[in-house]
Amino acid sequence: MNAEQVLSAVAQEVNTCSQCPLHLARRKAVPGEGPANAEIMFIGEAPGFHEDVQGRPFVGAAGQFLDELLEGIGLKRENVYITNVVKCRPPGNRDPEPEELAACAPYLDRQIQAIHPKVIVTLGRFSMAKFVPNAKISQIHGQPFKVHGQLVVPMYHPAAALHQPSLRRVVEADFAQLPELIRRAAEIPETTLEEPPEKQQPKQLSLF
Ligand code: URA
Ligand code: SF4
How many CB atoms lie within 10 A of CB 207? Predict the structure, then answer.
């Protein structure tokens, strides 16, 4: 199967998935969207109200801000891949449970392997935790990590900046680095940590 075929197979499975309790209350599952050859992939948390209605990622207020951020760095939404760690809306937009994250993870892993983007941007703490467990987003946002050859840049969730206007500038500054990171992705060396063990919070970097 080529990358496009993998993505459409994943989407079909997600749309009829009942692997976790989130399938019970969803209207539409939200597999993700974008071209199979995208150089950059954005991974959010979970569908919200509007995403659940439309079956598309980031179409509500946070999505509008994401569109503006992309436009600000000369990227078009149609040219990036956008998805979430959990593909169905948690009731009332509650946080996803560990069991739900675990049940849904294989879909995201297959999407990442198919797209093989130059850069993965994690939006918010749940997608950050997939790659950089135990890290604090306030400490590592905007900092690129290269793990198993994959460049990952953790960023604040756009919704956080909507609730906390002072974060807007921070998110914009982190986004401003992306074009350069896409260009340089291949040259950036694997992240190695030379800090003493008690400071090595991103030590258990794990991909897939
Ligand atoms: N917030 C997310 O994390 N994902 C969406 O798709 C929409 C809002
Ligand atoms: Fe399946 Fe993921 Fe939806 Fe749970 S959240 S039902 S694992 S697609």
Answer: 15
Is the confidence at residue 196, as pLDDT, over 80?
no
Contact 124, 157 (CB under 8 A): yes
Nearest ligand for residue 101 CA: 2
**Ligand 1 contact via 14 beta carbon (within 6 Å):** no
Alpha-carbon span 137 to 155, nearest angstrom: 7
Ligand nearest to the CA of 126: 1
Question: What is the set of domains in the chain, with CATH numbers?
Answer: 3-205 (3.40.470.10)
**pLDDT digit string, tens, across residues 61-98:** 999 999 999 999 999 999 999 999 999 999 999 999 99
Does 42 contact ligand 1 (Cβ within 6 A)? no
DSSP annotation of 90: P
Ligand 1 within 6 A of CB of 45: yes
